[in-house]
Queue: 3 jobs
Job 1
Amino acid sequence: MRITGIVLILNAMLVGCRGPGSYCDTGDECDSGNCSIDDHVCCDVTCDEVCFSCRLPGREGTCTPIPDGTPDMQSGEGLVPVHGMWG
C-alpha cells in the first residue's frame, strides 16, 4: 500500500498536477502542459496571442479574447487595448 502511494505522488510530480486557472511558472506544472506565461496560470492551450488571457473572471484556465475596455490586469492601472495591443 505504501509503495502505491509513493508511485502516485511521483506520477503527479512528473505529469503536472495543477488544474486550469492554477498558478504556474512552466507548463510542466499543469495538467494540460500549458502555462500562460503572461498570466501565470494553467491554461487549456498555449494562449500567447495578443489580447487573449487565461485569467479572465469566470473563464480562468480557458484562453479567451479580452473584451474591449477591460482593465489591464498586468499593471492594474486600468489600461485598455489600443489598436489591438495592451499598453
Job 2
Amino acid sequence: MLHARLTKELVTDADWSTALDAWRRLRDSHELSTPASSASELTFSVKCYRTGTKTKASNSSAIQAHVGGDLAERFGWCVDLKSPLLTVLVYVSDKRWVLGVSVLR
C-alpha cells in the first residue's frame, strides 16, 4: 500500500532528534514541563491535513494511523488521542508530504 510505504519512509528519514530537542526547549522555556521521564513514556497523536486534487482522494485517518503506528514502533511512544504531550502534524499535497511537530496547543 502506498501510504504505508510513504509513511514508513517519512518516519525513518525524519530528523526526530532535532525536532524533539526544539519541542522540549520550547516547552521548558514556557514552563510546560513534560511529565514523561523517558522517551518511551512520551504520549502523542497525529493530525493529517491534505490539499490538492490527487491527495483529496486519500484518507486522513488512514495516514494518521500509519504514521502513528510507525512512530510507536520506532520509538515505543504511546498514542493518546485526548491529551497527548506531543502532536505530530502531517501535511500532504499533490507534490510533497511534510512532517512537523506542534509546539503550541
Job 3
Amino acid sequence: MAGRFGRERSLARLWHNSSPMLPPRHGSPPWTLQKSGREVACVVRLLPVGIDVRLEFDGQERVGRIFQTEGEVLAWAEEMRQDHLAMGWLPVAVDPHHPKPQ
C-alpha cells in the first residue's frame, strides 16, 4: 500500500504543477454528451486526497465524487454516462487535434 500512496502523491504533484485536469488517454472516463443545446461533461482531476470526478452541465459543476482507485472512477463515470444516454443524451464527437479550450 505504501508504494501506491507514494506513486499517487508523485502523480498529484506532477499534475498539479502542470494542469489540474488529468490528461485524456484510452480507457479514461472523460466524456461529453449533448441534448437540446445543453452539454454534460465528465471531468477528472487528481487531488492529494483521491481522484475527483465531476459532472459539469454547461460548464457548471452539478455532481462530484472523490474516489481512491481508478476502477471506482471508471465504474462511476460509465454508470453516469449510461444513465444519461438512456435519457436521450448523445455523445459529442471530439477532434483530438483541436480539443475544446478549458
